[in-house]
Amino acid sequence: MYKELLDKLYKYHELSYLEYLELIKNRDEVRDYASLLASKTCMKYYGNKIYIRGLIEFTNYCKNNCYYCGIRASNKVAERYRLSKEEIIECANIGYDLGFRTFVLQGGEDSYFTDDILVSIIKEIKALHSDCAITLSIGERSKESYKRLKEAGCDRYLLRHETIDKNHYELLHPKNMSYFNRMECIKNLKELGYQLGVGFMVGSPNQTIEMLAEEMVFLKQLNPAMVGIGPFIPHKDTPFKDKNSGNAELTTFLLSLIRLTLPGVLLPATTALATIDKEGREKGILAGANVLMPNLSPLGVRKKYLLYDNKVCMGEEAASCIRCLKKRLSKIDREIVTDRGDYALMNRVLERE
Ligand code: 5AD
Ligand code: FES
């Protein structure tokens, strides 16, 4: 019966809320079958190719106070840093030589980085590396600001919605953060033509499987270019320090459901997944993920960009991390590709076939 639901999802790429819920509830019975169908789908669209995105964590200053996050403003123990424009460019140059053609500039909501400063950074990276895509992941901004950044050459934007349930959103965030504003930002980014990435944590405090079924319905309707999900992992200096971590099995099962629902989506096996399970990346890929986001941030600041405890690959130079990933991927018969991996382009090719 659950297998039939998966067959239906494999064929039509959509289920009802109640069908998703049934599957998530009974995932232990169909985990392997879901993985199999998701890998098959991923292979059909992408072959054995895995896309890499170079992550540059350029500031850990943040004005927000999300209860789960290690760089929340009220964490007085966090050592703050911000990379200069030159340091950011240097990270991109190193990444370029290693074969990266996408740079993800991620940071807290840091008002130091005005539109003018960001525009000049984007323009400079684009001038040096015109064949690269730039992704920003710097939280909520005005539509006007998103527009300026897009016009400067930014191609993609990652803004996880964190949870589709408004009440749950309010349990994860302080009162001055608004679910409505978050959703408005996502809508604006989409309207402006960004390749949009959204996502949520798996197993965040008070999350229910009903909410996860809702997530699937929401993702289908939004149809984003990318979906980032990873397990919640507590950070010792946050209000959620004593909460339980999310689990790898549920995360990989959801990766499979997302792959089957949005067959051409870009789906990372996240660092958080690698952190709670030492084979998390491999398991994520075998469940349907097709993107890895190794860290290009300078070693000196790595340990300061801690959203959760025990993050992996903290001491690895980007070059050795890439070597390690290549070796790991070859064991599961996958390989890294170095093109930009644009969602629209790839999906157009697929439509033609
Ligand atoms: N555990 C797992 N993921 C986290 N994030 C923030 N804090 C944590 C945590 N404690 C995720 C959020 C955010 C992304 C950058 O990292 O989903 O959007
Ligand atoms: Fe980063 Fe192995 S994946 S060092």
TrEMBL record:
Co-factor binding details: Binds 1 [4Fe-4S] cluster. The cluster is coordinated with 3 cysteines and an exchangeable S-adenosyl-L-methionine.
Annotated binding of [4Fe-4S] cluster, by residue: 62, 66, 69
InterPro entries reported for this sequence: Aldolase_TIM, Elp3/MiaA/NifB-like_rSAM, FeFe-hyd_HydE_rSAM, HydE/PylB-like, rSAM, rSAM_sf
Cofactor: [4Fe-4S] cluster
Keyword Isomerase tagged: no
Name of a matching Pfam family: Radical_SAM
Keyword Iron-sulfur belongs to the record: yes
Radical SAM core domain ranges (all copies): 48-273
Superkingdom in the source lineage: Bacteria
Record keywords: 4Fe-4S, Iron, Iron-sulfur, Metal-binding, S-adenosyl-L-methionine
Gene Ontology MF terms in the entry: 4 iron, 4 sulfur cluster binding; metal ion binding; transferase activity
Residues reported to bind (3R)-3-methyl-D-ornithine: 137
Binding sites annotated in the UniProt record for S-adenosyl-L-methionine: 162, 182
PROSITE patterns recorded: RADICAL_SAM
Protein name in the entry: Biotin synthase
Record organism: Anaeroplasma bactoclasticum
Organism lineage string: Bacteria, Bacillati, Mycoplasmatota, Mollicutes, Anaeroplasmatales
